[in-house]
Design goal:
The structure holds three protein chains of three kinds. By secondary structure, chain B is mainly α. Helix content of chain B is 79%, strand content 0%. Chain B starts with a helix and ends with a helix. The chains are: A mainly alpha, B mainly alpha, C alpha/beta. Chains in contact: A-B, A-C, B-C. At the A-B interface, helix 7, helix 8, helix 9 and helix 10 of A face helix 5 and helix 6 of B.
């Protein structure tokens, strides 16, 4: 009964945030549009030699996806903080874990997942091979989830500060290192014809760890009367 | 249980007074050890068979790398104590440890580069250890910046305590992943990991330098903690009295 | 004599090592209405946030039915309702959706609609809250509290931005809650004409 209620809570916040994101469709699309534009600028600055693009495309796409998720992370708790909903969230007699996880899931579905889904198209633009495009997309689906979970952590830590967008990026970027490494290696493994399930497994285990630890620390941060 | 001693120990005023008594002795010991270690290491220890005299930078590089990492764990530990027992002094230790640790990390990176140039021909190699050190520096910078960007200083303390704990969880993962990444991308031309067995004449000054660096770290921490105490407690009676006496 | 629902002893709060208000002693029993009064910046909101459990006091104790607040936080949270400085009303949701979202799961749609009528928000039921005025948003937030079964109400400047009709409805609701053995704690810088209220004056004489 109790656990049932907690999962209801997860879905109620997920539903609420999805509804809000849907009502503000244009703003929800911003990270995706940013991603597409900035990746499209790459060949213009690097030259359009197919072989060179092919070599750097996976890394470029991963870094740009990271940037797009990072930029959107700021908005995770910002509005709730300003309109007072965050206070109401903190004083609910429920596990904050579920609410936070619901919010992060909604954010991932609306702002980060579209980036992963658009990535094959960008891979084609940067003349990646079909096999590597597949591992790029699989990697980015998990990777953007990890980015969002960590971005939520940064958003919770910086929610009460003034110039948060840069600060959030600075404190969270070092934590992105393992995700970037395993994510991009998946593609290079694939290109070199090696077994790419190793980096995939590493990425998945990071994802599983973050799914637990990130909402847990975020609720700790909110409950520690830090948000004022 | 009687926790009085605990809270007494954590009282900024008590710490300020005790540290005042320790400081002169600590200064003397630190500087004499530092002098002995440096002169011995640079002037008298035998030159390395392969690297010649350029290896002598080890006497700065190794101790500062030690402290860069140890300092991070100290910072996170102090932050955790502050969060659990809500001890102000512990938060302030954490806050002061961030810039000091960052400086030691920077020193380790710079001396590593200076050592690398004559040894394998470039200032910077993307190997596992150097890269992890660089990321450690970024983590320090993050903790430093986050703690100073809150209007409410207590919130800043808590936020950077959380961040440093999260960083501690991440350091092994970051190190492992960077290590793995290095073996993937770099052909093993130079073997960094195997430390050649050191001649005792080389090792003793290194040992002294490591102790001296720990003391320097402690000294820097105590000094900046004293400044932090005065600035944070400036509204209290005992600080006002202290100021009026001078 | 019954145990006090809330008891504060020598409670104080420091911001940047500076006390925000003079130490406060207070006992709150069932059926109490308490007005926290003080000038702007005297720490009314801070005190309210401590009472709600959002902030922890720097020194002194705060107890709920004799138990330290930090030890029974979840139990306490299920007994309180709070309207903060900001109304916690989502601009992109309609009035009705805003109401449903924060109140309990066991409420029927009919009861939501009934409470909407208290403040006369029925006609705006399906309009987005972003289109409402500050006073109307405040009414949405207050409607939410009326709809909640919480025993203790905490209201931060509840009558700001409300029109005179809204104020009288709110007063009536507060008195009704008090008569039902509920507790109302509200912070306001101005006097509120309402019967039988305990006034707590907070100020800062240390600086």
């Amino acid at each position: 009964m109790r656990t049932n209620f907690q999962s209801n809570l997860f879905f109620s916040y997920l539903k609420r945030d999805l509804l809000i994101a849907f009502r503000r469709r244009s703003a929800s699309l911003n990270p995706l549009i940013f991603f597409v534009m900035i990746v499209a600028l790459m060949p213009l600055s690097l030259g359009s030699y197919e072989s060179r693009l092919q070599q750097i495309a996976p890394g470029v796409i991963w870094i740009m996806a990271l940037l797009s998720v990072l930029l959107s992370s700021e908005s995770l708790f910002d509005e709730d903080y300003r309109d007072g909903s965050l206070e109401q969230m903190i004083i609910t007699p429920n596990l904050l874990f579920m609410l936070v996880l619901g919010k992060i899931t909604a954010h991932w579905l609306t702002k980060s997942l579209p980036i992963a889904i658009a990535s094959p198209l960008m891979g084609l633009l940067l003349s990646m091979s079909p096999e590597s495009i597949f591992s790029l997309m699989i990697g980015l689906i998990i990777g953007t989830a990890c980015f969002t979970l960590l971005g939520g952590l940064g958003a919770a830590l910086t929610v009460a500060t003034k110039d948060k967008s840069f600060l959030l990026a600075l404190i969270i970027m070092p934590l992105y290192v393992p995700i970037i490494i395993f994510g991009s290696s998946m593609i290079y493994y694939r290109i070199d014809g090696m077994d790419w399930s190793y980096p995939l497994a590493a990425l998945l285990s990071i994802f599983c760890m973050l799914t637990i630890l990130s909402p847990l620390s975020i609720s700790g941060i909110f409950r520690s009367s830090m948000v004022e | 249980m009687n926790w009085n001693w605990f809270h007494k120990f954590a009282s900024p005023k008590w710490f300020y007074q005790i540290s005042e008594r320790i400081l002169p002795g600590l200064c003397v010991v630190t500087f004499s050890l530092l002098c002995v270690g440096l002169i011995w290491g640079i002037g008298f220890a035998p030159a390395d068979a392969k690297q010649g005299n350029s290896f002598r930078i080890i006497y700065l590089h190794v101790p500062s790398s030690f402290l860069a990492l140890a300092g991070y764990f100290l910072m996170a530990f102090a932050g955790a104590i502050g969060l659990v027992w809500r001890i102000k002094l512990s938060f302030w230790v954490m806050k002061c440890a961030a810039p000091i640790g960052g400086i030691f990390t920077l020193l380790a990176l710079v001396t590593g580069g200076l050592w690398g140039k004559p040894t394998w021909g470039s200032f910077w190699v993307w190997d596992a250890r150097a890269t992890s050190m660089l990321i450690l520096l970024f983590l320090y910078i993050g903790v430093y910046l986050l703690g100073r960007s809150f209007q409410n200083l207590d919130s800043g303390d808590k936020a950077s305590a959380f961040l440093s704990i999260i960083g501690t969880v991440n350091i092994p993962i970051i190190y492992k992943s960077v290590d793995w990444w290095f073996t993937l991308h770099q052909p093993a031309t130079i073997n960094f990991t195997s430390a050649p067995s050191m001649h005792p004449d080389m090792f003793y000054p290194l040992f002294i330098m490591i102790i001296a660096f720990y003391l320097v770290y402690g000294l820097a921490l105590i000094l900046s903690l004293r400044v932090e105490i005065l600035s944070r407690e400036r509204k209290t009676k005992w600080v006002r009295k202290l100021i009026s006496q001078q | 004599m019954s145990v006090a629902i809330l008891s504060l002893k020598n409670l104080s709060f420091n911001r940047n090592e500076k006390p925000v208000f003079d130490p406060i002693d207070l006992e709150v029993k069932e059926g109490d209405m308490i007005h926290i009064k003080g000038a702007n910046g005297s720490g009314k909101t801070t005190l309210l946030r401590i009472l709600v459990g959002l902030l922890q006091p720097s020194s002194g104790s705060i107890k709920h039915q004799g138990v330290d607040l930090q030890a029974c936080l979840y139990d306490y949270f299920s007994n309180i309702a709070y309207v903060g400085h900001n109304s916690a009303v989502k601009d992109s949701l309609t009035v009705f959706e805003n109401l449903c979202w924060m109140s309990g799961k066991n409420k029927s749609v009919d009861s939501h609609i009934n409470t909407l009528e208290i403040f006369g928000l029925m006609s705006q039921k399906d309009s987005l809250c972003g289109e409402l005025s500050a006073g109307q948003k405040r009414k949405v937030a207050l409607t939410r509290i009326l709809h909640n079964d919480a025993k203790i109400w905490f209201l931060d400047e509840p009558i700001n931005a409300l029109d005179s009709q809204g104020v009288s409805i709110l007063k009536k609701a507060m008195e009704k809650h008090k008569n039902n053995q509920g507790i109302v704690v509200f912070a306001s810088h101005q006097d509120v004409m309402i019967g039988d209220v305990k006034k707590i004056l907070i100020r800062n004489t240390i600086h």
